[in-house]
Amino acid sequence: MRMLMAVGLILIIVGLVLLFVPIPHRARHGIQAGSVSLGVETTTSERLNPGVGAVIIAGGVVLMIVGRSRR
Q: What's the confidence (pLDDT) of residue 10?
């Protein structure tokens, strides 16, 4: 049952990180004609929806409770 506790703790940490750390996204826009390539590369950093982080944290808490109660 310690495995459920460990997975729950990892999910809580990942959920907290997702709430505060933006995820970088890189996109390339342009055209290519023969051997000539013309384009622009853009980089944006976006945070995930807070609901996603909350669901992951709640899942971690549930796993920790289940892991503790089965002792």
A: 95
